[in-house]
Hints:
The complex is a heterodimer. Helix content of chain A is 71%, strand content 3%. By secondary structure, chain A is mainly alpha-helical. Chain A has a domain of 230 residues. Chain B has a single domain, classed as ABC transporter involved in vitamin B12 uptake, BtuC (Orthogonal Bundle). The termini of chain B are far apart.
Amino acid sequence: MLKFRLEERTKSPYWLIILSPFIAILVAIILAGILIVLAGANPFESYYQLIIGAFGSKNSFAETLARATPIILTGLAASIAFKAKFWNIGAEGQLYFGALATTFFGTGLIVLPSTLMIPFLFVMGALAGGLLLLPLVLLKLYYKVDEVVTTLLLNFVVVLLVSYLLEGPWKDPMSLGWPQGKSVIDEGVLPQVLSKTRLHLGFIISVFLAFSVWFILSKTVIGYRIKSVGLNASAASHAGVPIFKTVLIVAILSGGMAGMAGVTETAGLKGYLTLDLSPGFGYAGIAVAMLANLNPIGVIFSGIFLASIYVGADAMSRAMNVPTYLADVIVALTVLCILLSLVFVHYRVLFFGAKKDD
Amino acid sequence: MIEFIEIIFTAGFWAATIRIACPLILATIGEVLCERAGVLNLGIEGIMSIGAMVGWMTVYLGADLYTGILAALVIGGIFGLLHAVFTVYLGASQHVTGIGITMLASSLGFFCFKLILPASTTPPKIKPFQPIDIPFLSELPFLGPAFFQHTPFTYLAILVVVFAFWLMNSTPLGLSIKMAGENPMALEAQGIDVFLVRTIAVVLGSALMAVGGAYLTLSAFDAFYFGMINGRGWIAIALVIFASWKPERALIGALLFAGLDAYQVRAQQLAGAIIPYQFFLMLPFLLSIVAMVIAAKRTRYPKALLIPFRRGERH
């Protein structure tokens, strides 16, 4: 049996920190390439098709950015929460709650001019997402009920609630039997930012929010508290950081980001709520956050990267006859490779009997 | 109203309870083994999914049902080993590794399913395990059809509980697993390899999760669907906490939970016109959350759960 131990690096080399996510992605792509070979296709041609499908034309590039919009937001949701070691895996449910709020307020209940209506919907979506997470945070803080399990379980409850509303009281009578919500009123619809594409204002808002989260985390007292709670909660508590308040803020920020992903999808991409609004954007956010090493600015790029995999895989699947599930495999492999790379960034591997070289 | 009480006096209700409980029992025991050794395994949902797929596919491609169980056992063990390499040997985040394993196992399972059966609009079926009548006992009124006319896979699942109880309480390995989750330093001081003990527990536990998934495709149903696990893995994680990390309590917890689930299906048929079916389907998930809140007061996590053990970091 190979004997080794991990020794914490006092200082990780800078090149290693910069290069590690790229190496992780490369390894994930090579491993997924083996699956393409198994599927009987040429991996180089398949990846070429994937890149063309994601970035090959104005339309496909716009589609990639449109797809990146909710993933960036759920990625921010995961980044904020994971920074404080609060394991919110419920972004999927919070996204749908944001979408429910958009449908509730945005389909005629309140009519405001566009410049007020759009911010109003985002605020309501964020509140809804935060509100869904709030009871689970309180259960965690008061009763120590593990948030991983409760946030995961609540995802299923919310999807069933959406299913009930869309088949029952909220069903659009104009939709001819298809379960979907009423259309968001014109004042609330996010305008196109690139003509004749599906790219909408939501993308710009998500980028703006990424910068805002970066600002909060790195330039404010709240951000400092969030990070200190994540690094060592008991030390932070002794140092006078209000743990309760901090975790509450984390949860509301995190749930709020995911809730706004529901707004961009309902008021931006589709214009109405459907049961297949999110094909797992909430879970993709975890991958995005990990890939960006929980850095909010990094989330923009890792979100676009993941979106390109999803969008490109559809094109690749059509051209090469490789199942689209390859995209999910690539994303999963990326998460695991990132974890692996983080270990090597922070630790050096010492084999028993090996000489230390420093 | 009397119909709602009559439900629990039908043999069908009890038989369904056992059927629903089996995959949960196997998965919960699997998670108990991992967590008792100090490793949270959030790969459970994905491992159950790929276990269901591999078990079913093995039989679909011509092998017999027991080989199907074996195949699920092996694939579960492989993903368990992957989880152990990351969390035990490399000390990576157990939360993120688990989510990553769930994503990988389920997407890989779906990918392979689509690869082997590209264009199947209606899912193909296999001949699953058939119920066997236990001599004499199965002829008892009520008790017979409720408890003694199940498939061999069902009895196997009950045997797993007995095995796990024996393993945890009467074997040196069980003691080592418990120590690895409570005080790994003391275990290492006795000259026992903590890494190895934790790895054994995670591999064994993950194998059981996969078999729990295979129960769905080889015994409860006869086909594989996408998303057929539908949160059962996460429910099992809640059950572990409810069961205070004890195999015998996991059995009781799973049966209790399955009983409520079986009841709601039947109550739904009676009240379906009044209460929408979605609310019945929410019950298992809401109940799991409630169960965790109830258990929270007396919850005592294994002390070393989530804490990676590192040699040479002895304090």
